[in-house]
Amino acid sequence: MTVKTMEDLFVETLKDIYYAEKQILKALPAMVKKAGAKQLKDALETHRKETEGQVDRLEQVFQLFEVSPRGKKCEAIEGIIAEAKEHMEDIEDPEVLDAGMIGSAQAVEHYEITRYGTLIAWAKQLGKDDAIELLQANLEEEKHADELLSEIAEATVNQKAAA
Ligand SMILES: [Fe+2]
Ligand SMILES: [Fe+2]
Q: How remote is the CA of residue 138 from the centroid of ligand 1, in Å?
């Protein structure tokens, strides 16, 4: 698709985050399995469930733009997920691995936060209020996941990893 208008640009970026969310959904179960700290395992599993809801919301946004939901390969998320997999394969110490996985998961959250921030700004400009609400709901979940990961890292995981 050729991008001619701001609406085209919005839809292209929506396809990017839709692809990213689906890849994240595929990657999370292995991370949940590998997580050592119970708090981390629970946080990742909760966010996996939230991510399912986020995919649904994105499908509703596609509907609002009268476009059928389709992903567009996002190299950025592929790279972040590849790094997370590398950690899971290479880091033997389970406590160091937890710290590494939190780092990877936060890289994912920050990618999502930047995408949703941009999409919300564009939706505002395009006057698509219904889309803003849906995107905002996803953004809040990403921010919350990011904050929770910071808390877990700072409260226990980092100390154990360094011990
Ligand atoms: Fe997400
Ligand atoms: Fe997320």
A: 7
